[in-house]
Amino acid sequence: MVEHQGLDGLRAELRPDGVGVIAFDRPERLNPLTMQTLCDLERVLRQLGEDPACGAVVITGGDKAFCTGMDLKATEPTGAGGEPIEQVYAVMRRAVSSVLTMREIGQPVIAAVRGPAVGGGFAIATAADIRFCSPDAVFIAPFLKLGVSIGDMGLSWMLPRLIGAGAAAELFYSGSPLGAAEGQRLGLVQ
């Protein structure tokens, strides 16, 4: 087993059976994303993708949630000189880069979703090749309610291809939750 050290909000290991496991690990906050978490996610995905001993990657959440998306209360330096718009773009570029890395590595990526997958967490689960969920899994796209873009992490491109344009639009415009059973009926969940 190879464990990855020094990760912010993530735990990662390559198990002896060749499965790389990445777990969002800030359960007291329901596993939100920060700029550093996204950097670490991309780095670990690249490392696992380049490791010939890794046959598949599972992304999951610690405790009772998969991932509740971006930590909107985090105040992290982004290296963007303090300009708010540049800071937002820096976070968006990092988020997109981590999702692109998920899609680029040669191993299949499986999202094991338990509890809420909100915003960026929903996007990460959707970007996986396969999604398995516990009965309490719920997907939420709250972007319009927060006044932010839906497409920051590719969700507006991936979700309509998985569940159809109409069902995706309903989720985007309403911000209503999508449970595991309905997600399976629509083709989001295996």
TrEMBL record:
Annotated GO biological process: fatty acid metabolic process
UniProt keyword Cell wall biogenesis/degradation, yes or no: no
InterPro entries named among the record's database cross-references: ClpP/crotonase-like_dom_sf (IPR029045), Enoyl-CoA_hyd/isom_CS (IPR018376), Enoyl-CoA_hydra/iso (IPR001753)
Regions that span the bilayer: none
GO molecular function terms attached to this record: enoyl-CoA hydratase activity
Pfam families in the cross-refs: ECH_1 (PF00378)
PANTHER family, sorted: ENOYL-COA HYDRATASE (PTHR43802), IP11341P-RELATED (PTHR43802:SF1)
Name of this protein: Enoyl-CoA hydratase/isomerase family protein
Species whose genome carries this gene: Mycobacterium paragordonae
Record lineage: Bacteria, Bacillati, Actinomycetota, Actinomycetes, Mycobacteriales
